[in-house]
Write a structure and sequence with these properties.
Elements lengths: L6 E5 L3 H14 L9 E6 L1 H11 L6 E5 L14 H5 L1 H7 L1 E5 L2 E7 L4 E6 L2 E6 L5 E7 L2 E9 L1 E5 L7 H4 L11 E7 L10 E4 L4 E5 L7 E5 L2 E3 L2 E8 L5 E5 L5 H8 L4
Parallel strand pairs: 1-2, 2-3, 3-17
Antiparallel strand pairs: 4-17, 5-6, 5-16, 7-10, 7-14, 8-9, 8-13, 10-11, 11-12, 13-16, 14-15
Amino acid sequence: MTDTPRLAFLASPADEAQRALAALVALHGQHEPQEADVLVALGGDGFMLQTLHRHGGLGKPVFGMKLGTVGFLMNHHRDDPASFDSIFARIAAAEPAVLRPLEMVAQTESGASVGSLAYNEVSLLRQTRQAAHLAIELNGKPRLDELICDGVLVATPAGSTAYNYSAHGPILPLGSRIIALTPLAPFRPRRWRGALLRADTEVRVRVLDPYKRPVSVTADSHEVRDVVEVTIRESSERTVTLLFDPEHNLEERMLSEQFMV
């Protein structure tokens, strides 16, 4: 990266994000993501995930600023001219957080095989009023012959504070190389509350009655319906780097979440 990095500004459609985009581009110019040293994402966590899915393969670090509803993965946006001028200083002082996504491969009733990445979580959900009946294997070994539930999810450390946390799953430290396997409204077995797994564990979930009790799977925002089997593992090749202001780093925020009362 050069002393003055080339920036690609990306913004959500929200009015506030579009206004910030116009002001930043007017001050600093604009580069295409492929030519930039740093991607600057303006929006909320949803837009950050879109940015990672669209441009994560470029291997460019991403500095986010919160101009949306939820901004756990974003830095604060400072709405004054001085903050626009200081963006290079903020990026130079930023602390990196390296995220490794999950790879999901779903087999559908029609015989299709659909793959996707997830930076937060992969979640299987019942499609109808009837509970899902699922079987879970870890590295090819059966662990639960039948889980009756609304669904089940696998979360990364970065995603452990999102859907996983609302489902009473654990918050995972960044860099822990652990993933969370968390049930959603489990009915049987009643006492099973999930598991903490090594990140290199291959999780396979089979839908036991896909025609009577259909199930969909979602990798972040990419949904596949009527699945019969889903395989989930941490990517061995893809990583992304998020940049955070030192006083607002992701690891500290995740630690703080565990002590909220």
